[in-house]
Design a protein that fits this description.
The structure is a homodimer of 410-residue chains. Chain A is of the alpha/beta class. The first copy, chain A, is built from 14 helices and 16 strands. In chain A, the strands form 4 sheets. Chain A has a 5-stranded mixed sheet, sandwiched between helices. Chain A has a 5-stranded mixed sheet with strand order 14-13-12-15-16, sandwiched between helices. In chain A, strands 1-3-2 form a 3-stranded antiparallel sheet. The radius of gyration of chain A is 23 Å and the shape is globular. The first copy, chain A, starts with 10 loop residues before the first helix and ends with a helix. The C terminus of chain A is likely disordered. Chain A binds a DNA duplex (30 and 30 nucleotides) through helix 1, helix 2 and helix 3.
Chain lengths: 410, 410
DNA sequence: AATCATTTGAAAGAGAGGAACACAAACTCC
DNA sequence: GGAGTTTGTGTTCCTCTCTTTCAAATGATT
C-alpha cells in the first residue's frame, strides 16, 4: 500500500499497462475467456476487444473457439497465449549439472536438456561453451523459427543481475568471474540476457507455477550441501539493493558452532546442510548425493540413527525458520532440494521448534510444505525472468506500429 | 520489477494516479516548482497545469510566486503543499508514554504532546480515554478548523492494521485486546483509523523524513527492553501476510541461551536488550531507563566495565544483524531507541562481527548509522500512515466534482 | 536595450477507454 | 421443443485525459 507509485501516467503508458495486464494474465493463468479477462483487468469489453485484436495481429496470442463450461449465455471465445509467438531461452548452472530449456509464452516447455557437470572447479569459459552448445541444441530441436525474446540464466552463486558478474560461487570455485561477458560472446544473440541466483529463480518458479501459486509472502529453502533461500515479499522476489538477498544459508544460528566454509561459525548451513546430516548419521560428511540418498532410504525403512539424524536437522531447520518467520511473516514455507524428499523425516521436530520459537500470531498462519517442481525449478524460474520485459511491455514486441503509421501518412 | 501490476488502467485511474503522483511528491519533498514537477512526473506542462489547478481549487496545495534561482528563463512558480489543507491525527502508545500530534500535509507538525504512562499494565479503556483527551487537546490548540483526513496509531505491540486488534503487547500486558473498538468509540470521528506497530512506524518515519531518506532497502533496529525492527524492502515497509513482519527481537541467535519472555531461549533481545546490557555492566537487569542512562554515562567517561558491556552487546548486535543483512541485502542499517545513544560504544564489535559473518558482497554495501528523529519517530510514522489514503487518491478529498457536474447538467 | 532561454496560458488535436445498442448463442423451464 | 433468460459479441458514438502548438510573459545575459 505504501510505496513509490510516483511517476505520472500518459495515454501511451496506459495502453502499455493494459496490454501488459492481459499478456501477464494469459502467461500466468493460461487460456482465459474474454469475459474472464474483462473481470480480471477491470476493463470494458470494448477495450479488451481492441487490445486482444492487437495482440492477435502481433501473434502473441491466438483466439480460439469458445469453451463450453455449462453456464448459460453466449459462450465467450477463448484467448490463448501462443507458445510459439514468443519464446525464451533458460539456462542453469547448478551444482553438478547444466540445464537449458526453451520455454514458450504461457510457460510451456518446448524442449529441455540437462547434462552432468564433472565435480570440482570448472573454468568459466568451459561452462559458457557448454551452455552455448546446449542452447543451440534445444533451440534447434524445438523452436528454431520462433521469435526469441530473452535469455535467463540461473547461477548457483552470487551474481549481479545486470551483467552476470559472479561475485562468489563456492560450489564452482569461482570468485569475481565475468560469466556474463563470456556468455554474451558465445551465445551471440542480441536479446537481453538476465542473470539471477538459482535459489531465487527456483522460488520464482514455485511462486508462478508450483506450490506457492497465488501466495504473496513465501520463504523457500533449498537444502543440499549448502542452503539457499528464495524469498517472496508482497508478491515480488526479494532482491535487496544489489540482488544479493535471500542468502539464508549464512544466518548465524549457533554463533560458537562449527566453522562454515564462508569463514564464520555456526551458519545455518553448518547445521542443516547435507554434511551435518551425514555426520549425524555416522557417515563421512563429505559423502556426496549418493550418501544422502542412502540415509534417506535408511530413514524410510525406520533406521533409528537415520531418523535421529533427520530429527536433529529438523530441529535446526525449525530454529532458523522461526527467525525468518518472525522477520517476514510469510504465509508459506517451501522446502526444496534435498529437503523435498527429507520433508517427512524433519517435519515433527521442525514444527515443534516453530511452536516454541515463532511468535504465535505469525506461527498460526504458517504452512510448511515441500516444493513441487523438482530439479527443474530454477530453470523454469530463469525462463520467467527472461519473459519479464515482454510481460511488462508487450507493445515493444508487436510490429512497430508508429513507424509504419508515419510511413503511411508521409 | 517482477510483480503484480495486473489491473487495467482507465481514464479515471490515470487521473487519480497523476494527481497522486503530484501530491506525493509535494508531501515528501516540500515545495517544488512547476517545472520540477514536470521533470519528476514525466507529464507535460499542460497536464501539470490542469492538475495543479484542481489541487489549488481543492485547497490541498497553494501556488506561490516564483523562487528566483538565478537561472535564465521565465521563473517557474512554486507549488507548496498546504499544511492546513489536510491534517492527520497521529497517536502513539509507547512503552512508558502516550503521544499525540497533528501533522499537516507536507509533514509539518502543527502541534504535539506527550504524557508519561505509569509503569505496569494498563487497561485498554484507560489508554483509549487518555489518547482521546490528548487528541482533543492537540486538535483544538493547533488546527481546529483544518480538515482531518485520517488517524494513525502506533502501538508497541503486535496489532492488526485493519481494525486495531492487539494480538500481544508484552510491555502493556495485553493479549487480544480490542484497542481499535475502544478507540473508535472514544475518538468519535468518521475518518479512517489505521493501526501499526511502533517499530514499523518509526522505520517509515526515518525512511520519509529521517536518516533513511531516499534509500530503498533499510533495516531499522529499535533497542530498549525489547528489540523491535522495521524493515523497508524495495521502498515499502515489509508487512508480511498479516502485518506481523519485522519482529526481529525474537530471532533465535543463541538457541541454548537465556530464556526469553516469549517462552523461547536465546532470542536476539535476550542478548541485545537493555537487561543484557545491565547484567553485563554488573547491575540488576530489571533496572529501568535510569540505570541504562547511568551505564551510558559510565561508558562515556571510560569505565572499562561499561565499555565491555557495550562491546558484548555490540557483538551480539552484529551477529543478529549479519543474518538480517544476508537475508535482506539492505543498503542501510539504522540503530534507534537506546541504541542511538549507545551507537559509539557498540560500533567496533558490531562491525567486526559483520566483517566475519555477513557475506562480503552484501557487507561492502552496508552502512550502519544511528537514527535521527529521536523519540517522536513512531508518531511521525503514524502520521505518514494516516496520510496514505489521501496520497493514493487525492481526488476523493477534493470537492466531489461529478456530483456538482451532474447537478449542473440536470 | 536587445537577445536568449525558459515558462506560462489557452485552444485545438489525438489516443484510449467507456457506454449504449442490436444481435447471437447457449442454458433452463415449461 | 419452443419461449424466456442469461451472458457475451460487434459496432458506433461519446467522454476523458493527456499532448501539441503557438503566442505571450519574464528574468538573466551581453
Amino acid at each position: 500500500m505504501i510505496g513509490r507509485e510516483d511517476l505520472g501516467h500518459r495515454s501511451e503508458t496506459v495502453r502499455r499497462a493494459n496490454l501488459s495486464a492481459i499478456v501477464r494474465q494469459l502467461h500466468l493463468n493460461g487460456a482465459l475467456s474474454r469475459s474472464e479477462l474483462v473481470a480480471r483487468t477491470g476493463l470494458t469489453r470494448s477495450a479488451i476487444r481492441a487490445l486482444i485484436g492487437e495482440l492477435v495481429d502481433g501473434e502473441l496470442v491466438t483466439e480460439g473457439p469458445a469453451a463450453l463450461d455449462g453456464s448459460p449465455g453466449r459462450p465467450s471465445s477463448l484467448v490463448c497465449p501462443d507458445p510459439h509467438g514468443a519464446v525464451v531461452l533458460a539456462l542453469e548452472i547448478a551444482v553438478d549439472s547444466l540445464g537449458a530449456a526453451v520455454v514458450g509464452l504461457g510457460g510451456e516447455v518446448l524442449d529441455s536438456l540437462r547434462i552432468d557437470l564433472p565435480p570440482g572447479r570448472s573454468r568459466v569459459d568451459d561452462i559458457a561453451a557448454s551452455l552455448a552448445g546446449l542452447a543451440s541444441t534445444v533451440r534447434g530441436r524445438g523452436a528454431a523459427e520462433d521469435e526469441l525474446v530473452g535469455v535467463g540464466v540461473a547461477v548457483v552463486g552470487v551474481v549481479r543481475r545486470s551483467d552476470g558478474m559472479v561475485s562468489t560461487a563456492p560450489n564452482l570455485g569461482w570468485r569475481d568471474e565475468p560469466l556474463g561477458d563470456r556468455l554474451t560472446e558465445v551465445l551471440g544473440t542480441d536479446v537481453p540476457i538476465t542473470y539471477a541466483n538459482e535459489a531465487d529463480m527456483g522460488a520464482l518458479a514455485e511462486l508462478r507455477r508450483g506450490a506457492a501459486r497465488g501466495a504473496d509472502d513465501v520463504v523457500v529453502i533449498w537444502g543440499s550441501v549448502g542452503v539457499g533461500g528464495g524469498l517472496i515479499v508482497d508478491g515480488r522476489p526479494l532482491r535487496g539493493v544489489a540482488g544479493y538477498g535471500g542468502e539464508v544459508g549464512h544466518i548465524p544460528v549457533n554463533p560458537d558452532g562449527l566453522p562454515c566454509r564462508c569463514g564464520s561459525n555456526g551458519c545455518w548451513e553448518t547445521e542443516v546442510g547435507t554434511s551435518a546430516l551425514l555426520r549425524r548419521a555416522g557417515r563421512p560428511p563429505e559423502g556426496g548425493p549418493e550418501a544422502v540418498d542412502a540415509v534417506l532410504r535408511e530413514a524410510g525403512s525406520g533406521s533409528p540413527v537415520a531418523l535421529a539424524a533427520f530429527a536433529e536437522t529438523g530441529r535446526w531447520l525449525g530454529i532458523g525458520l522461526a527467525g525468518l518467520i518472525n522477520v517476514l511473516n510469510p504465509r508459506l514455507v517451501l522446502l526444496g532440494g534435498r529437503l523435498e524428499a527429507g520433508y517427512p523425516f524433519v517435519r515433527a521436530t521442525l514444527e515443534a521448534e516453530l511452536d516454541r520459537r515463532a511468535l504465535p500470531a505469525s506461527r498460526q498462519l504458517i504452512r510448511v510444505v515441500p516444493t513441487t517442481l523438482g530439479i527443474d525449478a530454477p530453470l523454469l524460474g530463469a525462463a520467467e525472468l527472461a519473459f519479464e520485459p515482454l510481460l511488462t511491455d508487450p507493445a515493444a514486441w508487436l510490429r512497430p506500429r508508429t513507424a509504419t503509421a508515419e510511413l503511411a501518412t508521409a
